[in-house]
């Protein structure tokens, strides 16, 4: 609420400017600053937060410009009435594009950038031929008398939109939604497996980003009063927006606004000083310098020193509450029937069928390439199965998106740890509870995260980035993340590989403790000592099929199993 | 419905413009496919080459200017590779950095040659042959011939020589190629140098066939990207074939509807190829 008060005060202070009787130059200059702030900040909500760099922001801005221009000039609409339509049309366009584009899995980074660039040209061509007709549109309309002058009124409108935009960026930044977007930025697949509805989040962020750009476009149409396709759908706009955000810092809600003010003031200075060419060259130099020297932007650099001190541990360091561990029984929690998965003809799983019992630690063993990891990837929804059925607590999992599987109470670790690289260790662990079985708000998720950091001995590292952890700490971070979602069924994919014997003992103790929490565990491991020590039951896979199941001791004596591991007995 | 002659002439001009797309795309395809660098500055370099040709043509034959621009640009390409491989490791960063470079080169061009359209005067401008009902202008025919020669030579180089084998191995898996003794660094410099040298040649063709203006730099990006992505990254012949395909479809669109609709063809193709075959890139 303090932040909201700050926004209102700041808005009121800036809103008083048109009433001070300053020369119109100031209103125009401030209008241009705010215009840039809106465009950069709205761009950042999708592109900065989630890492989908759009070079097509000009298209959505342009949509807003042309909706207002056409309605005002050709249909005599009142200016204010066109604004919701300007925003709506841009948002609808974003929604339509996103619905297609975000379904394509491999579409990331530079491909998304090129795609949005191409869309700008397509839209410009359509506008030129269908709406504009060539010479441009003259936009003459009555500007509502919000201030003593027309430029003052437009300034106030843009100020309102700038406040809305920066407020949105701020609200998203601190919400579950924002956390999900940052997770998508770092590792989209893992985010999805941890319960983030990635498709919906990307679409929502795109929509919001486009709507705000369209709104700014609607006002800008009246501000420039004469719109042309070449000026509106320019690549320069798209690039300046990227540059402003990169300069200010894309990983902070205020970064793009700061970058926008710096760049706009700079360009304005050069234009006023009769050296616009020099100004543009300088923008190029800054772009290169920022990427090379300051990849985190101005704000990223400043805040680095702050952040470590700010977030502190809650005083009530409680032990994780102990749920009564159900003794293993034969009631199945997961029923696997005829599950197959092949990769271009290589059968990784062939009609595998078995059951996981509630409360047990089930060892899933087998030689390399026997389908253990593929099985985990199929259950967690990472790969779609080719056929078969996976029934978890009576509900079919096959065909469900990964985030809904996570929500049902299934968690996993990765054999090679895949932490979110740009989130702190604490945020990494706080993410799953925000999107897991019981969705928590940020504060309770952080409290939960602290518990599991204590539990895994990582509390001392809570505020560092995962890159600063060693392998054994990263493995424990994987465990902490999986635990924080309070899973009913947990898949551990070779958590012990690469650990020293002492670290391994520690890990084994942890796995035991996890079971005490009431989770059922499927334990994939090559370290036979740990398997024999920990598991209640073992299933042996070879060539994507279970060949033996039962008590650890019995299974390891099974001639078929010995055969699979050591090769046939040759007389 | 336009006459058959008009359609025929359109197809022909589409082939010619497509050759220029292919020539511009050749360098882009090499640096993207083999060095994992999306070099937007390639277009600015080509225009710089065009302006240099324009400047030098006051004293020299346009084709002779290549003796100056090609080595110069090869060195520029080597320098660019040094900078990008040292400072912009991931692909998106190469795109952003080279965009910055594009703005700088554009500003430099505008500073030296102004923002106005410039047309190179040369004896070749008016040369053309009449074959049947069709006109074949010399500058365009020369562009086609150069594009075919260079793309063909590059293809043969990649296909049949040790250099080519090493380059293809590096494209597939840089670390593994290095482990097997491929000098990845030197290879990178040579490929980047070649790509820039091709930009110099494309620039000369631009000066021969088009009027030059700094803002035009951006006009070529979408089409050439489409050609490269359809033709296949790292391919030498692909972009030329795709470029001609796009050129012809554009020319037909212009002849059958209005010239203002032409950009729709290449960009729609680009969008389609990204959406339907994203795994190719």
Molecular structure report:
In chain A, 58% of the residues lie in helices and 12% in strands. Chain A is α/β, with parallel strands linked by helices and 571 residues long. Chain A has 2 domains: 211 residues, no CATH class; 235 residues, Rossmann fold (3-Layer(aba) Sandwich). Chain A has a 6-stranded mixed beta sheet with strand order 8-9-10-5-11-12, with helices on both faces. A 4-stranded antiparallel beta sheet of chain A has the order 4-3-6-7, with helices on one face. A two-stranded antiparallel ribbon of chain A has the order 1-2. In chain A, helix 1 runs antiparallel to helix 6, helix 2 packs antiparallel against helix 9 and helix 11 crosses helix 12. Chain B has one domain: ABC transporter involved in vitamin B12 uptake, BtuC (Orthogonal Bundle), CATH 1.10.3470. Chain B has 12 helices and 2 strands. A two-stranded antiparallel ribbon of chain B has the order 1-2. In chain B, helix 1 runs antiparallel to helix 8, helix 5 crosses helix 6 and helix 10 crosses helix 12. Chain B starts with a helix and ends in a 5-residue tail after the last helix. The model of chain B has no long low-confidence stretch (mean pLDDT 89). Chains A and B meet through helix 5, helix 11 and helix 13 of A and helix 4, helix 10 and helix 12 of B.
Brief overview, please?
Chain A has 571 residues and is an alpha/beta fold. Helices cover 58% and strands 12% of the residues of chain A.
SSE blueprint:
The complex is a heterodimer of chains A (571) and B (281).
Chain A: H1 2-15, H2 24-50, H3 57-75, H4 79-101, H5 109-132, E1 137-138, H6 150-173, H7 176-186, H8 188-193, H9 198-224, E2 226-227, H10 229-232, H11 235-248, H12 255-272, H13 276-293, H14 297-310, E3 332-343, E4 346-357, E5 361-365, H15 372-379, E6 387-392, E7 395-396, H16 402-408, E8 410-412, H17 425-435, H18 442-455, H19 471-484, E9 489-493, H20 501-516, E10 520-524, H21 528-534, E11 537-542, E12 545-550, H22 552-557, H23 559-566
Parallel strand pairs in A: 5-10, 5-11, 8-9, 9-10
Antiparallel strand pairs in A: 1-2, 3-4, 3-6, 6-7, 11-12
Chain B: H1 4-35, H2 41-56, H3 66-87, H4 91-113, E1 128-131, E2 134-137, H5 138-160, H6 162-172, H7 174-179, H8 184-209, H9 216-219, H10 221-231, H11 238-256, H12 262-276
Antiparallel strand pairs in B: 1-2
Helix pairs in contact in B: 1-5, 1-8, 1-10, 1-11, 2-4, 2-8, 3-8, 5-6, 5-8, 10-11, 10-12, 11-12
